[in-house]
Design goal:
This protein has 260 residues and is an alpha/beta fold. Helix content is 48%, strand content 14%. The chain folds into two domains: 6-186 and 226-252, 3-Layer(aba) Sandwich (Rossmann fold); 188-225, no CATH class. The chain has eight helices and seven strands. The longest helix is centred in the middle third of the chain and has 29 residues, at 104-132.
């Protein structure tokens, strides 16, 4: 489905990002993996994807809090693969605190990584996609891009901003062969959510099962986590030719959360 295409997935050495990278590789896409580290394990993931799927995968370090590094990531990809056909803006961090206690450095970091990084990578990628007459930009937003929760002011603001950016980029590129969409997961069992479970267990004194059902998944009617493979499957679809007329929209994978 994506044979010969080149995809960048930011924040892709674990969790949702890695699942997306694996799914795109399984469809034949060449890949650029990314995180802010530069470990042997990072490069080993790229080597494993190459061996498993017969594609070419590379790891490129880039700190998504640094706008120049975001743009350089795209240019390095084009230099190596001569194209960027699919851009998946996945990198993200979280911090939870009431707005009056929210640390300024955490606010700035969340805005930079969860929102501004997508602006920078998109701005760098769009000219190459226009030259090619084809492109897919897929932003991993959140149910929190459509709904709010207490104590998550920065995350909610950034994800709402990412949905807005998605719509604007879609309109600017309509009719040019380029689509831009946002995937909005509810709770997915990732290391980030695992930490939230542990934190809430300490706060409430509840056992793990009760904490997940009644606290973490309180707003998710299915009472089930979405899986990383389900998120990855949605990204593969949005990257395909079948989704050529889907642009500027949000795809919720949230067990009914935003239907309420």
């Amino acid at each position: 489905m994506l044979t010969g295409k080149t995809a960048i997935v930011t924040g892709s050495t674990s969790g949702i990002g890695l699942a997306i990278a694996e799914a795109l590789a399984a469809q034949g896409a060449n890949l650029v993996l990314n995180s802010f580290t530069d470990r042997e394990e990072d490069h080993a993931i790229a080597a494993q994807l190459t061996a498993d799927h017969g594609i070419e995968a590379a790891y490129i370090k880039a700190d998504m809090a640094d706008g120049d590094a975001c743009r350089k990531l795209v240019e390095q990809t084009v230099s190596r693969f001569s194209a960027v056909d699919v851009l998946v803006n996945n990198a993200g961090i979280q911090h939870v605190a009431p707005v009056e206690d929210f640390p300024v450095d955490k606010w700035n970091a969340i805005m930079a990584i969860n929102l501004s990084s997508a602006f920078h990578t998109t701005a760098a990628a769009v000219p190459h996609m226009r030259d090619a007459g084809h492109g897919r930009i897929i932003n991993i937003a959140s149910a929190h891009g459509l709904r709010a929760s207490p104590n998550k002011s920065a995350y909610v603001a950034a994800k709402h901003g990412l949905v807005g950016l998605t719509k604007t980029v879609a309109l600017e590129n309509a009719g040019k062969g380029i689509t831009c969409n946002a995937v909005c997961p509810g709770f997915v069992l990732t290391p980030l959510v695992e930490k939230q479970i542990e934190d809430r267990m300490r706060e409430t004194g509840l056992d793990r099962e009760t904490t997940i059902r009644d606290v973490i998944l309180e707003k998710q009617p299915s009472k089930q986590f979405a899986t990383v493979d389900q998120i990855a499957g949605a990204v593969v679809y949005l990257a395909s030719d079948a989704a050529a007329q889907i642009t500027g929209t949000t795809l919720s994978i949230d067990g009914g959360w935003t239907a309420q």
